[in-house]
Specification:
Blueprint lengths: L1 H38 L4 E5 L4 E2 L4 E7 L5 E6 L5 E2 L4 E3 L5 E11 L2 E11 L7 E6 L4 E2 L5 E7 L6 E6 L5 E2 L3 E3 L6 E10 L6 E10 L8 E5 L4 E2 L2 E9 L5 E5 L5 E2 L4 E5 L2 E9 L5 E9 L8 E10 L3 E9 L6 E8 L2 E4 L3 E2 L4 E7 L5 E9 L3 E4 L3 E4 L5 E4 L2 E4 L7 E4 L2 E3 L3 E8 L2 E3 L12 E10 L2 E6 L3 E2 L2
Parallel strand pairs: 2-8, 10-16, 18-24
Antiparallel strand pairs: 1-3, 3-6, 4-5, 4-7, 7-8, 9-11, 11-14, 12-13, 12-15, 15-16, 16-32, 17-19, 19-22, 20-21, 20-23, 23-24, 25-26, 26-30, 27-28, 27-29, 27-31, 31-32, 31-33, 34-37, 35-36, 38-39, 38-40, 40-41, 40-42
Length: 466
């Protein structure tokens, strides 16, 4: 009995010691848990990635994480997720938009980061990249656009059009003449050569009546969707009025125009404050995203005429996003007719359109989204008429029993194939030696032609067999 009481007392003392140790360590344990919870999931920082616009089909991507994740997976475009590690060597990629999503997970949660870029075919037209444009609303009567070309050649041609005016050659900084109050737009179109394939970007803004009490007016901003990298802001301020700027909600600091700020991929905000008491407060939102900043690109368009008088066009196109649409336009006698817009769901598309025989038309394929358009080089083609005989078929040989005869085919205009048949009293035959039974019957030749726009026939005069 005494042994049992001694053991029980010993266990009780040890238990109390364990409880005391737990109580002593509890603050440290809670601090560790709180630290882990406050740390959150392992955040991802992309260190290097393919350029937003590139002609290179391969490359690599590197990233770091704030803490060691338990798992890291990568998804390229629509492929299945696979385990990955930095640096990641990318597979050979086709021309078009691409997206890599990195996902890390640990006991504290899941973190995700995405890199996007556009692989451009070197054979595609030059791409217009907008570097600066008027703000969406302004009191200034003129507007200035700045841009540069990607994938341009020495023969590249750039034209600008204000509203519905005729396009004229322009340089990488274009300022309009004084414009009336209301909405306006400038379209910048770059092409490989005169009449060649082209890509166009359109920027829109509205001129409004000023209140007269503004101390500053923003004159140039990046495009609403722009290529990641840097962004430039310009403004006009009343002489002697101080201005401060802040980016993405950060602290404001004194600034002067023009101001170049860092704009990595993602959404951004810019705020300009003029006057010591913040009398004028101007904000602007934009997104740095190469795929959202560019129009679709028509890489190739090949047409062929098939019967009956149908134009079939095979097109290869790059669509940076799901907003892009595609259509075929034909122009006959100065009148344009376009097919209904087709969503661009892949790189290859085919159009078929019936045509009017005898017309001469031009056609082109145009792709568009809310950023701009891309157009293939116009192609002119004459639609043939139905075949017509320019020379009748003829019977060769003597129409006499025991003799051989044959047919000389007719000559047709606008024919792709001609077949000729010997007729006996109007019925076709494959015989060439004239038998006695044909005496008194009439021999003739009939040619049948087929063409893009239909078919035609021609028959020779009949000759009586002797």
């Amino acid at each position: 009995m005494n042994d049992h009481r001694t053991r029980d007392t010993t266990l009780l003392v040890e238990s109390r010691r364990d409880d005391d140790e737990t109580v002593r360590l509890l603050p440290s344990l809670l601090a560790i848990v709180a630290s882990a919870l406050s740390a959150g999931p392992p955040t991802i920082t992309i260190v290097s990635a393919p350029e937003p616009l590139t002609t290179t089909t391969s490359g690599s991507l590197t990233w770091t994480t704030a803490s060691a994740p338990e798992t890291t997976t990568c998804v390229i475009d629509r492929a299945a997720a696979v385990a990955c590690a930095s640096p990641l060597t990318l597979p050979s990629l086709s021309a078009g938009p691409h997206r890599l999503t990195i996902t890390t997970s640990s006991t504290t949660g899941v973190s995700e980061r995405t890199a996007t870029w556009l692989v451009v075919d070197p054979a595609s037209p030059p791409i217009v990249v907008i570097d600066g444009r008027p703000p969406p609303t302004t009191v200034l009567p003129t507007g200035t656009l700045r841009w540069h070309l990607f994938n341009a050649t020495a023969s590249a041609i750039v034209e600008c059009a204000v509203d519905a005016a005729t396009p004229t050659p322009c340089t990488d900084t274009f300022t309009t003449t004084a414009l009336a109050l209301g909405p306006h737009q400038v379209t910048v179109r770059a092409s490989t050569a005169t009449g060649g394939a082209s890509v166009a970007v359109t920027e829109q803004w509205t001129i409004v009546t000023g209140t007269g009490d503004a101390l500053a007016e923003i004159t140039a901003v990046p495009a609403t969707a722009s290529v990641p990298g840097t962004a430039t802001f310009s403004w006009q301020a009343t002489v002697g009025v101080p201005t401060t700027c802040s980016l993405d909600g950060g602290p404001a600091s004194a600034c002067v125009s023009p101001l170049v700020v860092s704009a990595p991929a993602g959404a951004h905000s810019f705020t300009l404050v003029a006057g010591a008491s913040g009398t004028t407060h101007v904000g602007y939102l934009w997104r740095a995203d190469a795929l959202a900043a560019e129009p679709p690109i028509v890489l190739a368009a090949t047409g062929a005429l098939t019967r009956p008088a149908t134009l079939n066009v095979a097109t290869t196109v790059i669509a940076p996003d799901d907003r892009s649409r595609l259509h075929l336009t034909t122009v006959a006698s100065g009148v344009e007719t376009a097919t209904a817009d087709t969503p661009i769901t892949g790189s290859a598309h085919v159009f078929s359109r019936p045509l009017v025989p005898g017309q001469t038309i031009s056609w082109f394929v145009e792709a568009a989204n809310d950023v701009g358009t891309s157009r293939s080089a116009p192609v002119t083609v004459a639609i043939p008429r139905p075949p017509t005989a320019t020379l009748l078929p003829r019977l060769r040989g003597v129409a006499r029993t025991g003799k051989r005869v044959a047919c000389i085919p007719a000559t047709f205009a606008d024919a792709t194939a001609v077949t000729t048949t010997l007729l006996v009293n109007g019925r076709p035959t494959t015989r060439s030696l004239v038998p006695r039974s044909w005496r008194g019957r009439r021999l003739s030749c009939r040619s049948t032609a087929t063409g893009i726009s239909g078919s035609g026939t021609s028959t020779s005069a009949a000759v009586r067999v002797r």
